[in-house]
Every structure is written in C-alpha cells, then in structure tokens.
Amino acid sequence: MTKPETLELLGQSITIMCENEKFNLSKEEKFTVLQALTAAHNLLCPTWNKSKYKGVFSSHRIRKPWRAQIDNQHLGVFETEEQAAFAYNEAAIGKYGINARLNNINSPK
What we know:
Elements: E1 3-9, E2 12-18, H1 27-44, E3 56-58, E4 66-70, E5 73-78, H2 81-96
C-alpha cells in the first residue's frame, strides 16, 4: 500500500507517494526534498528572478535590486543589471581564465 507524505512550503502542498511504508521522511528529509523541488522549479521557470545576463538574478531589494553569483558563490548586490553582469565577468575570468563564458557587456553603468 502506498503511503502519501504531504509537505507544505509557502502555502503550496506537495504530496509524495512512498511505495514502501517503511520510507518515512524526517523533518530534515522533507526540507531537503522541498529544496530540491524548489531548485527544479527555479530552473524550469526562471523568468521571475533572472535577468538577460548570465549569473545575474533579482535580489528582491529596493536599493540594489540585482545580485551576481558564479557556481553558488555570491558576488554581491548591485543597482543595475549591467553592474552585476560586469562583476560576474570579472569573477568568471578569475575562475576560468580564457575559457570563461562572459556576458556581452562593455562596462558597468
């Protein structure tokens, strides 16, 4: 018999069907599953938080609404997308050298 596990995050309920009744999720395991589902959702539906530049995302801050990151390393928050993209480019060059994939941008505004 399948035992459903219902998880809730930000008002959204997710039911996980477990084929084995011995498979009971702890609170930490439920949180890990929700993190994975959230990450998958963000990859599939990135338009609400991503800019046109690689490594640049909305920071949801009023004064500095853009943030840059590379390989899960936070690079900072910025006033413009271009500033964040420039910071990403500098970090990418430092990390990957001539093999870096850069944003097509001249200089930050």
